[in-house]
Please model this.
Amino acid sequence: MTLDHVDTLECTLCGETYDPEQVVYTCPNHDGVAGILEVQYDYDVIVDRFDAELDGNIESQWKYRDFLPVDTDATPVTLDEGGTPLVDAPRLGDELGVDVRVKNDGVNPTGCFKDRATSVAVTKARYAGRDVVTCASTGNAAASLAGYAARGGLDCRIFVPAAAPEGKLVQPRVYGADVLAVEGSYDEAYDLSLEVTQEYGWYNRNAAINPFQIEGKRTVGHELAEQTRGEIPDWVVFSMGDGCTIAGCWKGLREFAELDFVDDTPKMLGVQPEGASAIHDAFHEHDDVDTVADTLADAVAVGRPRNTLKACRALEESGGTALTVSDEEILDAETLLGRTEGIYAEPAGAAPVAGIRKARERGIIEADESVVTVVTGSGLKDTAGAKRAVGPVTDITPSLDDVAAHYGTPAGEAGQDPRGGR
Model:
């Protein structure tokens, strides 16, 4: 067993350190889950082992295995997550008035960004001899954990708020997980999952408290650093829920810059719905932080984020900022992304596009700057939200007259047989 590239788990509040070989979730010196732990590495060991070419060829996130906090003799539980495309988005850029590329993590194996973290979690759980994995989720983490648990041969028991989208509750059941719909909010489901973890000893994947989850998420930062090596963007934009996704990306970007793999780092822009704005409010030092989430972007509908400190640190260290957008702006962004670039994002994945538009209006992002927006989930995760944006289908009879009523008489010779006859 070799985990010699990981030094310690360090409390972000008091600096107390813990053995990374242990299953430790948070620092016990603090009430609740306030004492979030940060994985600290021996980068000399990592650089000694890491010999991959940074050539843009990324088959999966396990290209960066030497950076991941798993034992050297552990067999990864993987579905080839990561290695997601970074695509130019000229038509979207024209609409927003800025150069844009899209990092599409909605094409991950279970349809969301969380597969990066889940692969690490299930790998560690199986290597530690755990038989059952669990988490609380608004839907995406539930589906992700269920899929990887099935891949790794582990039992999976998930706690979700009863109001989670039906599609997100079907997917984990297809993977064979037990899905327990809690009568209450995500935060109540989350608290229950922590009690269960203590009582039953199941391995908890919750990214907000499991210190190894953010380490899987940071591979998106490694990938972006590699994919933009010759053209580093001015901004990278994420939606924020618990805060660990944007924090993870920033850690990966910062690591590659500090190791001189790339020349610079972008600024981070964090986007939250107006109805779930706790990290934004903390970053801007607002006093009236609301703990009740009310937004259609269920994947980031978090009233009490556990990684606010890490998220705010990422925004501050990168020279970035945070802003909020309305649900209507999110829906507009979802259809804008779809009709300009053919990318179907769930509301939380489209929120960064709404954020870019608002940042342009406010002069936060300048016209001559470049932006990468990260789509964190497929639109197939939440078709009900998309229906609100696009409206109903158009009903017609099987008649050319009905088509003509919509589009007019076709140009050219009327009545010409499309097969070449008359």
